[in-house]
């Protein structure tokens, strides 16, 4: 996912690709399978160092996710929100900070109508950097949203 904001249809198809199969079946067609669910990394440098405050640029993207999730209320589908940190703090501090980032995104989505039962949040600290060459890179300070049952 680039810096632009994908539309709700793109996000819905990425998070819930099996829905298209259900639509085909309802129309009397046979579904021959669907692609794996997508994981979205929301955007590089979204968070300031040491902060879990959601910047305005990320809120714009999260509004689209909230729209998609609102339409799936009560579906029983699970979405996992992962918080990440760069390596600028201790492992303990990074774990706590990344958890706060994931929770702040979860709270934002729930405040905009997403079903809290669909959402889980987890902090991974700096253990899974996006930039493998620079553990201090700003792109490691991110949140990823994906299906809880999707393989990484």
Description:
With 152 residues, the chain is an alpha+beta fold. Helices cover 35% and strands 12% of the residues. It has four helices and four strands. Strands 1-4-2-3 form a four-stranded mixed sheet. Helix 1 packs across helix 3. The longest helix has 21 residues, at 91-111. The radius of gyration is 16 Å and the shape is elongated. The chain starts with 7 loop residues before the first helix and ends in a 5-residue tail after the last strand. The mean pLDDT is 87.
Key features?
4 helices, alpha+beta, 4-stranded mixed beta sheet, 152 residues
Task: Kindly summarize this structure in a few lines.
The chain has 152 residues and is of the alpha+beta class.
